[in-house]
From TrEMBL:
Stated name of the protein: Transposase
Domain (Transposase zinc-ribbon) ranges: 9-58
Pfam families: Zn_ribbon_IS1595 (PF12760)
InterPro entries (UniProt xref): Transposase_27_IS1 (IPR051354), Transposase_Zn_ribbon (IPR024442)
Length: 155
């Protein structure tokens, strides 16, 4: 049986990740410097690029200090999990597709969800804000007259 992640190309996943992570050019995830040189490919994953930062003199890779770093699953499995999460599937349903343990999928899904929440911008309401069906009862305890609706006006 053909699985969805078999159709994903790991090289394309890394290419897409680089484009989303560094849209204006590669920069160091630690110091933010753009004085970066390529240092060849990773020995374990040929599609993963290694870099050297001239600003802080540290080495890093495509996944360094990202939600995907430090895990044994290939990037295409992470992308597949992310896609299935976007379909609002349960962890059990997600684990069935790439043939992984539910505990692995649970850890991956939890980490991806936390990363999404962490990047979510703070919502600030400005101007006139309207709410439908809001009942305000705080501060009126024991005083039902204060909560009573006024009679409708006639013109």
């Amino acid at each position: 049986m053909l699985k969805f992640h078999d159709l994903l190309d790991n090289a394309k996943c890394y290419e897409q990740l680089r484009g989303l992570r560094w849209p204006e050019g590669i920069c160091c995830p630690r110091c933010g410097s753009d004085h970066v040189t390529r240092q060849g490919r990773d020995e374990t994953e040929r599609d993963k690029q290694r870099y050297y930062c001239k600003g802080c003199q540290r080495r890093f890779g495509d996944l360094s200090l990202s939600v995907f770093s430090g895990h044994h699953q290939p990037l295409k499995i992470w992308m597949h999990c992310l896609y299935l999460l976007s379909l609002n599937l349960s962890n059990r349903q997600i684990a069935h597709e790439p043939d992984l343990n539910e505990s692995d999928i649970y850890a991956m899904a939890q980490q991806l969800r936390e990363a999404v929440v962490e990047k979510k911008p703070v919502v600030t309401l400005t101007g006139e804000v309207e709410c439908d069906e809001v009942y305000v009862v705080a501060g009126h305890k024991g005083r039902p007259d204060a909560v009573k609706k006024s009679p409708a006006r006639t013109a």
